[in-house]
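We emphasize that the prediction below concerns an isolated chain of 258 residues; any contacts that depend on oligomerization or on bound cofactors are therefore not represented. The input was used exactly as deposited, without trimming of termini.
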Amino acid sequence: MFFNHKANKLFTLLLIGIVSSLQTLSWSVEPDKDLLLYFPMEKDLLDASGNKNDGELANGKVSLQKGKFGKAIELAADQPIVIEPSDSLHGDIFLEPFTYTLWINPDFKGTEWGHLWRSLPGASGHNTLFLNSAQGLLSFRGVVGGWSVLCQTDGGLVKKNTWYQVTLTSDTKKFRIYLNGKLEKEDDYQDTKGQIAEFRIGGSANETYSGLMDDVAFYKRALGKDEIKSITNSGMDAFLSVASKGKLTLNWATIKTE
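Result of the prediction step, given as a token string:
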């Protein structure tokens, strides 16, 4: 009898403690640690991933227009966004699994071959994602011994003044290019040189991009097809919100009393 009474009392105290603790329970969202760079393009070129991979616009001021989701940046020809390599977005990043994803709305006022992503200098891996306006295709290229086509779509896919969701992935087995959530091309992975000293979004010199860009992001993993479809259908903000719900962590908060 004494044991049962003591056990019941202990259980009651434990229950009271749990209920009291729930009053101080708060939810916080754990960020996606694989997201290295994210430009929502809502007001500036600050990296919203938390990694401080901020961009700087060359040759002019940031011009924001109506985007696919909220606002978008308008890039004139020879007006790239410049990003310096960092500990997270480092110069050998293309030798590892990655995803580069963005929305584009080209006006075709640049050159035939325009850069959606550029890696410099030319003596490095030189990994570059091109948009060919004349042929309406996407082409990922880099240095493998010499300048090489790594993965290239068929033509006739991209037209001017139209929004497209473009995603390039590598799992170090395959390169894949998706357009509007659909896999358009897949090729075997190849090692490139790496040692990149500067990244650029948008064109420069004799290979320029002109038009709008929105929701630019870079991951250190290959996103799956369902994730890419989610980004296509809902945008990055909604995708990140849904993804983070599976990573909710409990933090204990201090109750503020008046």
